[in-house]
Structure formats: C-alpha cells, structure tokens
Amino acid sequence: PGENKSVPDDGDDYYLLDETSAKDLSFVPLPRPKGPISKYFRTQLVWYNIIGIGTLHLISLYAIIVSPSARLGTWLMYMWMYMMTGLGVTAGSHRMWTHKSYKAHWSYRLVLTILNTAAFQNHVIEWSRDHRTHHKFSETDADPHNAHRGFFFAHCGWLMCRKHPEVIRKGRMIDISDLEADPFLAFQRKYYPILVLLLAFIAPTILNSWITGDTYLNSFLIPGVLRYVSTLHITWSVNSAAHLWGAHPYDDTIHPAENLIVSMGAIGEGFHNYHHCFPWDYSTSEYGPLFNGTTCFIDIAAALGLVWDRKKASPAVIKARRSRTGDKS
Ligand code: ST9
Ligand code: ZN
Ligand code: ZN
Asked: Which N-terminal residues, if any, form the signal peptide (predicted)?
C-alpha cells in the first residue's frame, strides 16, 4: 500500500490518494484542469520571507563588492559548494526522492541528505511534496509555483506569500508515505533549522578559512551566502525561465520547455519539456551523461555499485511521444 503499482511508459508517476480518506490508498483518476488563477483568490504577502529573501540579496550584493579581496581558493570553494549542494538537490531531492527515478545504497542517501541540507531549499519531505504537487497539477491553481501567475511568482514570489488553498487541498492527496518512512529524511525534518545553520553557513565559513587562509568574513560571504543565493536563482529559473522560454519537442501542449541556459547552470535540469513528459527518467533528458552533470554523477555512483535501477525512457517511447505531441522541432 502507498507504493506506485507500475511505471507508466510516459506521463505521470504519482497517484492521488482517495480524497475522502487519506488512509484509503485506492487511487483516483487525475483531472488536469488548465487555466489562470481563480478571480476569487487574493494574494497574502508573508513579510518575514520578503524581508529574509531581501536581506540575503543585500548581503550577496555586499559579497560581490568585497569579492576582489577574496583568495582564489575561496572561489574554488564557492564552485565546489555550488556543485555539491546543487547535486544534493538535483540527484537527491529531485531525481531520487521526488521522482524515485533510481535506487541507492544507504551511504549514498546519507551523503545526499547532508548535501541537500547544505543547499537549504526546505527539507526534502516539504520540497518533494511541493514538487510532486507541481508535476501533478502543473500550471493550475494547485501548482505551488504556477507559471500562469507570471515570471516573478514562478521564480520566487511563491515563497513570499501564502499558498493558494488548492495547493494545500490537492497537495494533501499526494502520497508522500515513502518519504516519511525514510529515517534520514525524518531526522533532517526534525532538526532542519540547526542543521541548515551548521551545514549551509557555519561549516563553509570555518572550512574555507581553515583550508584557504582567507578571512572568516570572505568565507562566510562567498562560499556561504553568495553560493546559496546563486544556487537558489538557478533552481528558481527551472520554475520560471524553463516554464516560459524554449522549445517543446516532446509536448507542445504544455509550457515546460527545453532551456539550455538553465540546464548549464542547473547541472542538467533545464530539459524541462522532456522532464514533464517523462518525470521518472533518471536523466531528466533524452541525453546521457555528456550533456548532464547530474546524470554523470549518478552514473559514476552506479559504476561504484552505490546506485541501481536507473529508469530511462526507451528511444521508441520518446519517438512516439515526439510524433504524437511534439512541436516537430
Ligand atoms: C526554495 C525551494 O527556494 C525551491 C524549490 C524549487 C523547486 C524547483 C524544482 C525544479 C526541478 C529541480 C531543479 C533543481 C536545480 C538545482 C540546481 C542547483 C545548482 N501539499 O507551507 P505552508 C500544508 S526554499 C500538501 O506554511 P503557507 C503544510 O503541510 C528557500 N500540503 O503554507 C501545512 O500543513 P500543516 C527557503 C501542503 O502558510 C500547511 O499546508 N525557504 C502543501 O501558505 C501550511 O503550509 C523559503 O524561502 C502541499 N504542496 O506558507 C520559504 N503545501 O499546518 C519556505 C503546504 O498541517 N516556505 N501544505 O503542517 C514558507 O515560508 C511557506 O511555505 C510559504 C507559504 C510562506 C511559502
Ligand atoms: Zn516544472
Ligand atoms: Zn521534477
């Protein structure tokens, strides 16, 4: 019970819990209404998030101003932290936990939990529940970052206001029992604020200063805050830019698009038209590791025996989908 019964050859990989009883694990069909936000809904701003996100950006601006004084090693640490925390999101909360596109050894899951915590993008259970809700109810009122509400809302505005009631109502029908049963994720959720403080900010500050000999201030500002804000923007761009701009070779009836620029920054996560068609594909794109840093990382882990059961859409299924719904690009 609670497990997906099958992997469809394309389309969705989640099933809704019966609306009348979350305990009743029978599955119901998946209505997918499209359309703009209901005219009866009023946006309610959440000021502490607006101030928090605003302050982070002011500190980042200050980091850019003082950045010429930073050592080369500090920039290398910035890049290392960007990649590692990015993989905690792409290989971790996205491909492994949300989409269950591959299976992994507990040691790999532990490392990815640590990297994911250092990424500070909400704990995995919340991140994945929102992301499953996004896939299931894409671009409707029930989509947490519905791109019909404009670039800014899809990018980061959704984190600055209360969720549409439909997000919560329909989101509660999404099965997350697999995530709640994971002991690493339960631990991460329980101690999230303190773990984030330690792993996202204190650890990079101390480590960088120790390794490179740079000041604590530069170490906090560049591999800490600036790296955090950079990874946030590139992640947010998947919801904004990659839902607005790019080709639709797999499905021209949906907005998610193939956006190469986003893909480059997001370690292979910008092939978003493909991803919305085949969300269970571990490569989140038609292509293999050459064009996709996260796929490369997962493949290396598989070669080491830490990862197995990678799901991939077959060329025949992709071709059929392209000719059925693609834009012929
Ligand atoms: C951040 C996350 O930035 C970014 C995620 C982006 C995802 C992109 C994915 C793209 C693909 C992957 C690409 C990766 C690329 C990476 C590249 C890296 C180099 N279903 O939430 P509340 C319930 S985080 C079911 O408070 P409000 C909830 O359980 C940044 N239920 O809603 C609760 O119930 P209860 C740091 C749901 O009050 C109740 O509703 N974080 C769902 O409207 C209230 O929940 C932040 O900045 C659901 N989907 O507040 C802000 N949703 O009471 C963090 C909610 O029973 N968030 N519920 O427990 C918040 O402060 C708030 O959520 C809020 C909304 C203010 C936004
Ligand atoms: Zn999307
Ligand atoms: Zn996804």
From this structure: none
Rounded to 10 deg, the angle between the 183-190 and 124-136 helix axes is 110
d(Cα 37, Cα 148) in Å, to the nearest integer? 7
Token couple for 102:
């591959």
In a domain, 251, yes or no: yes
Say how far apart CA 121 and CA 88 lie, in whole Å.
10
> Whose CA is closest to atom 20 on ligand 1?
171
* pLDDT tens digits, 154-174: 999 999 999 999 999 999 999
CB-ligand 1 contact for 49 (6 Å cutoff)? yes
Residues 229, 234, 240: CA angle, nearest 5 degrees: 120
Q: Which residues of the chain have pLDDT under 50?
A: 1-33
Pocket test for ligand 1, best of 163, 240, 259, 298 (most atoms within 8 A of CB): 163
Residue at 213 is within a domain: yes
Q: How far is ligand 1, taken at its centre, from the CA of residue 123, in Å?
A: 9
Q: How many angstroms is it from 126 CA to the middle of ligand 1? A: 6
For the entire predicted model, the pTM comes to 0.90
Q: Which of 280, 250, 294 is nearest to 88 (CA)?
A: 294
175 Cα to the center of ligand 2, angstroms: 19
Q: Ligand 1, from 235, 261, 294: best to mutate by most atoms within 8 Å of Cβ?
A: 235
Q: Letter for the amino acid at 137?
A: F
pLDDT 10s digits, 197-210: 999 999 999 999 99
**C-alpha–C-alpha distance, residues 105 and 90, integer Å:** 17
Residue 234 CA to residue 225 CA, distance in Å, equals 14
In a domain, 26, yes or no: no
| Phi, psi dihedral angles at 27 (to 5 degrees) | -105, 150
* Residue 131 Cβ contacting ligand 1 at under 6 Å: yes
Query: Domain total for the chain?
Result: 1
Domain assignment present for 320? yes
132 within 8 A of 178, measured Cβ to Cβ: no
123: domain range? Answer: 52-325
